[in-house]
């Protein structure tokens, strides 16, 4: 299966989106199609042996639209590791929308310039406004009609796309919103032109009675101002809608803007050269000065600095960097200058992958959008049918063509499938962009939706709840018979460093790390011997020394405090006992420390109504000790890596919607099995297989933040869908005159056009509120900790 994205032209409403999707789905070999009205794009999964890009484009063309493969889609890398596309050369996702907004603004200004006098002339007599006598006496009634027509023609020309696209969609048997606008405006103009012929015929009589008849015909039957108002108000709505849309991709545009356009390369001779950022090659040395943005990913060679990584991770505190540390494109060097070796450039940088993930998520479709898609597919034909019924019914009931025409045109212009089509994609785009700002990357719209339903979060212990590496927690010198320590903490650490400096055991690494922090250098020992499963022994000068577990101490005939063993076991710590010349010298406890925010994260999840389960391969005693410290309610311990997926499946079989959070390779099957898999603290590996959501920081609170964001986005989508359905459910009957017999309510087509325009604007504006989203529960608990 191939996955390709296409730019689709000519789509203006949800009906267009549905028709394009339907046309491509009909092709043999197509597995999945997702059309995005907001971005004007289409993602297609298809069998390359049965279809080509040209076949897909042709199907779209036959449906009355245009399509072309997206330039630079997929990986930007060329064959044989050639050049890659730099982030600095990427096109901003809002550029196209900004250009469309500028074009719509020009249309709007021109339309308003001609609409104001048209409306004044056409409606002035009804509103009591002063008009020149040439427009009020019957003799010049034809002058009034011709003036209105001349003022209308520029408006129709500037908005000709409604007529071109609308009638084209009718011709293809798939009417769209443009068809509704075109039919409404055309009906008003056609009837008005017919009225002009009636006026001319009446004026031909030349009598005062004929002149009066012509004047009355003009007063009652000219709808030029209605057509102009429909077109102008729809354009007002389209402009506001397009302008609002251009703000939805702001988060990604900020990321693109952070990538510097130039960089300083240092060659082997130390010569500095300023080059375009996209010209940097793998292995080159790059110099970054204070205040500059880092152009590509790499590893620091020389120098130290504090780097602001907030653009990628959302972490506001700068991170200290030194030789051997990794740096990422779009992060900002705050203090000292340093050089680094480029390890990932172009489309392989962390930043480029983040942008691609967000764009891919926007190209997918959330399950909640399916209802809107189904409605949009039949919406316009249904509206045309209702308009026709309204016209026929009112002609039968009243015999008044003006009343019947007003009802039919009002039905056509008040109906708005756009609000339905925009409700989901606008919220998804703003939500995924907001997530990227927070360091939460959603790979699909489906993951963003599913996360709001999660009731159980399964947490891997090591590296998720804990730091993932052992650290010294306690240094306890042994107590002599006189009740005083036999040595100081520093002396005990010197003894430990001497023994463990040659050991490769992970616990030995933790002890050596603490010794380095204390400035202790391990002395050289002789006769070093590792005792498998027990510990190590050695000789230090004339002293025999040993380090290990309780079993080794027992073999050496050394007693260890039983209460210490029990306490350490209860707290999930591993004790290492140290002896010298057959006597206990002290105990150093080592544990995988809990992350600072883990307890707060569990508490936040609890307040969100989410149950937490710890799933680990560690022994039950250690796992339960960690669970007590952080507040996890259920522990599943002693689980082999291959069995993690089975335990997740069992939770799902019990009816739970499960999210799995993990960071290791052995978590991949469980991440894939869960309803939503979240990879935490992945660093450079943001495209981690099996994960639906990537958390850039190693912060468990981001799980709660992601759930809050998901709930906020879905709540916003439901609000928009409710408004869109409610608006049409109320507006169409009102326009058709259903309430006229009882209440005398009859909606003018002009008010219908205004209402239709505002409905789409309301939907987009509501979605834009997500730009100010804050995870209130998570932030409050984080502040309290």
Provide an overview of this structure.
Mean pLDDT is 83; it is low at 74-84. The chain has 785 residues and is α+β, with helices and mostly antiparallel strands. Helix content is 51%, strand content 18%. It has 28 helices and 26 strands. The protein is elongated. The chain has a seven-stranded mixed beta sheet with strand order 14-26-25-24-15-22-23, sandwiched between helices. A six-stranded antiparallel beta sheet has the order 6-5-7-13-8-11, with no helix packed on it. The chain has a six-stranded antiparallel beta sheet with strand order 16-21-20-19-18-17, with helices on both faces. A hairpin with a 3-residue loop joins strand 17 (526-531) and strand 18 (535-540).
What structural class should be given to the helix and strand makeup? Answer: alpha+beta
Annotation field: number of helices? 28
Return residue spans where pLDDT drops below 50 for at least 5 consecutive residues. Answer: 74-84
What proportion of the residues is helical, as a percent range?
40-55%
Largest sheet: 7 strands, mixed
Rg over C-alpha atoms, rounded to the nearest angstrom: 36 Å
Oligomeric state of the chains present here:
single chain
Task: Quickly describe the structure.
This protein is of the alpha+beta class and 785 residues long.
Could you give the topology of this structure?
Layout (H helix, E strand, L loop, with lengths): L1 E8 L4 H12 L4 E7 L4 E6 L6 H10 L3 E4 L25 H33 L13 H18 L1 H12 L5 H27 L4 H14 L2 H22 L4 H9 L3 E5 L5 E5 L8 E4 L8 E6 L2 E4 L1 H4 L5 E3 L4 E2 L4 E2 L4 E7 L5 H14 L5 H30 L2 H14 L2 H22 L1 E3 L2 H6 L5 E5 H5 E12 L11 H12 L5 H12 L8 E6 L3 E6 L2 E6 L1 H6 L6 H9 L3 E7 L2 E12 L3 H10 L3 E5 L4 H11 L3 E3 L7 H10 L4 E5 L5 H6 L2 E5 L12 E3 L5 H36 L3 H4 L5 H20 L7 H9 L1
Parallel strand pairs: 15-22, 15-24, 22-23, 24-25, 25-26
Antiparallel strand pairs: 1-3, 1-4, 2-3, 5-6, 5-7, 7-13, 8-11, 8-13, 9-10, 9-12, 14-26, 16-21, 17-18, 18-19, 19-20, 20-21
């Amino acid at each position: 299966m191939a996955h390709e994205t296409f730019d689709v032209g000519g789509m203006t409403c949800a009906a267009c989106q549905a028709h394009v999707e339907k046309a491509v789905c009909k092709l043999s070999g197509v597995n999945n199609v997702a059309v995005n009205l907001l971005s004007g794009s289409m993602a297609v999964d298809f069998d390359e042996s049965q279809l080509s890009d040209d076949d897909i484009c042709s199907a779209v063309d036959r449906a009355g639209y245009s399509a072309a493969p997206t330039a630079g889609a997929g990986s930007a890398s060329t064959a044989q590791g050639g050049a890659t596309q730099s982030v600095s050369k990427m096109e901003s996702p809002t550029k196209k929308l900004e250009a469309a907004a500028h074009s719509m603004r020009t249309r709007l200004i021109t339309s308003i310039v001609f609409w104001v006098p048209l409306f004044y002339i056409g409606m002035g007599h009804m509103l009591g406004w002063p008009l020149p006598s040439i427009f009020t006496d019957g003799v010049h009634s034809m002058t009034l009609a011709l003036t209105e027509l001349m003022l209308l023609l520029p408006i129709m020309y500037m908005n000709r796309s409604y007529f071109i696209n609308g009638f084209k969609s009718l011709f293809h048997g798939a009417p769209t919103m443009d068809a509704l606008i075109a039919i409404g405006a055309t009906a008003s103009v056609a009837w008005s032109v017919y009225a002009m012929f009636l006026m001319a015929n009446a004026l031909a009589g030349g009598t005062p009675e004929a002149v009066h008849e012509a004047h009355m015909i003009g007063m009652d039957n000219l709808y030029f101002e209605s057509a102009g108002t429909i077109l102008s108000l729809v354009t007002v709505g389209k402009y506001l809608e397009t302008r609002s849309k251009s703000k939805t991709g702001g988060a990604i545009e900020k990321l693109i803007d952070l990538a510097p356009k130039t960089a300083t390369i240092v060659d082997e001779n130390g010569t500095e050269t300023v080059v375009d950022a996209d010209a940097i090659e793998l292995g080159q040395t790059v110099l970054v000065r204070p205040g500059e943005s880092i152009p590509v990913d790499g590893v620091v060679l020389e120098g130290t600095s504090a780097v602001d990584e907030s653009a990628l991770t959302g972490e506001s505190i700068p991170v200290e960097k030194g030789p051997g540390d990794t740096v990422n494109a779009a992060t900002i060097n705050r203090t000292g200058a340093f050089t680094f070796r480029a390890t990932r450039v172009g489309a392989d940088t962390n930043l480029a992958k983040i942008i691609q993930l967000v764009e891919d998520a926007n190209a997918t479709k959330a399950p909640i959008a399916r209802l809107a898609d189904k409605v949009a597919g039949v919406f316009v034909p249904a509206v045309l049918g209702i308009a026709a019924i309204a016209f026929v019914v009112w002609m039968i009931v009243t015999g008044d063509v003006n009343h019947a025409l007003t009802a039919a045109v009002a039905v056509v212009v008040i109906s708005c499938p756009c609000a339905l089509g925009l409700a989901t994609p606008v919220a998804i785009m703003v939500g995924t962009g907001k997530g990227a700002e927070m360091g939460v990357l959603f790979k699909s719209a489906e993951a963003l939706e599913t996360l709001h339903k999660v009731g159980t979060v399964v947490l891997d212990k090591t590296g998720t709840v804990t730091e993932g590496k052992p650290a010294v927690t306690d240094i306890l010198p042994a107590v002599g018979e006189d009740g005083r320590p036999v040595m100081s903490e520093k002396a005990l650490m010197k003894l430990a460093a001497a023994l463990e400096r040659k050991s490769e055991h992970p616990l030995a690494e933790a002890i050596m790390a603490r010794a380095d922090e204390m400035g202790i250098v391990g002395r050289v020992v002789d006769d070093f011997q590792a005792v498998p499963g027990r510990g190590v022994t050695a000789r230090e000068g004339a002293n025999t020394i040993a380090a290990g577990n309780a079993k080794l101490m027992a073999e050496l005939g050394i007693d260890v405090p039983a209460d210490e063993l029990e306490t350490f076991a209860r707290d999930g710590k591993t004790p290492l006992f140290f002896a010298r010349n057959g006597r206990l010298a002290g105990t150093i406890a080592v544990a995988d420390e809990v992350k600072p925010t883990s307890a707060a994260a569990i508490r936040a999840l609890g307040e969100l109504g989410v149950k937490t389960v710890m799933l680990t391969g560690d022994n039950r005693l250690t796992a339960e000790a960690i669970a007590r410290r952080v507040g996890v309610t259920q522990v599943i311990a002693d689980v082999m890596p291959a069995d993690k997926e089975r335990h997740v499946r069992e939770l799902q079989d019990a009816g739970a919607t499960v999210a799995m959070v993990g960071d290791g390779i052995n978590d991949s099957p469980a991440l894939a099995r869960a309803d939503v898999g979240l990879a935490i603290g992945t660093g450079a590996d943001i495209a981690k297989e099996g994960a639906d959501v990537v958390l850039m920081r190693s912060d468990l609170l981001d799980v709660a933040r992601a759930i809050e964001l998901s709930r906020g986005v879905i709540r916003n989508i439901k609000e928009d869908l409710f408004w869109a359905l409610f608006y049409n459910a109320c507006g169409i009957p009102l326009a058709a005159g259903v309430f006229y017999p009882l209440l005398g309510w009859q909606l003018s087509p002009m008010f219908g056009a205004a209402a239709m325009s505002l409905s789409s604007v309301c939907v987009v504006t509501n979605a834009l509120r997500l730009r100010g989203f804050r995870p209130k529960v998570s932030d409050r608990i984080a502040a309290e900790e």
